[in-house]
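Kindly review these tokens for lecture notes.

. . .
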Amino acid sequence: MRLTQLRSFYAVARMGSFTKAAEQLHVSQPTITTQVRFLEESYKVELFHRSGRRVQLTPLGEQLMRLAQQIFGLEADAVSLLADAGELRTGHLRVAAVGPYHVTQMLADFNAHYPDIKVNVSTGNSQDVLDRLLDYRADVGVLAQLVEDERFLSVPFGRHPVGIFTASSHRFARRRSIRLAELQGERMILREEGSTTRKALELALGAAGITVEPVMEISSREMIREAVSQGIGIAAVSTVEYVPGPGLHLVGISDAQIFTYAHILCLAERRSMRMVKAFFDTALNRPGFARKA
């Protein structure tokens, strides 16, 4: 049985006439007659009692009519679902990010444009984000680094200076900025290997021939804040990630260009997916935004 045959039967059953059914479906009456006859002959059943131009459903025809109503009702629901999703009136966007700081403004802008789209956000390290994109557990990702991999489309979103934060008792706490050379010999609390903030600082220190004294390596931002506030050491932080608090002080680095970069990415094969494209467009085209590479 083909859906066109069931559609012809359904139209006749609803309209009570082969002629009216043909008009509704914009086909010829012989076409409708042939489709219905094929159903009856293929299954050796009678779906209509025919009396002149009038037709009446048989008991079997009435049962098939009820099933057809369900089928075409579901078809209409499917069409409506796809249409709403295509117009972004419904749907679900999954975002994977290395942290909440880079992605928060993007999510706010996206929600303002598409309030009916549900958004799920997961956080993890850079590899977690890439893995979620590769196995389709995430639609878009937000990283603090450039990904040079042809499987991904990666677009720079912005850049943020790296500063140093200290306990209020530290000698830097009386300053608004320091020179990079002043970090020589300082006790530093470092993020884990692979941290983009750590990489940016280490590159700058290495280029300037400056050596610091690592005292701890901590992956948790909250634990680093606590260790700094206790005076164990000082730490580098991307200014977009810095959260002011009692006993803490942030200073800039006046003579070095040290930045972390936010990038939005997706699988290259999914770049034209409507919801993915909408997220990119919303993030990169918001008023006042100037992309920095």
Notes: The radius of gyration is 32 Å.
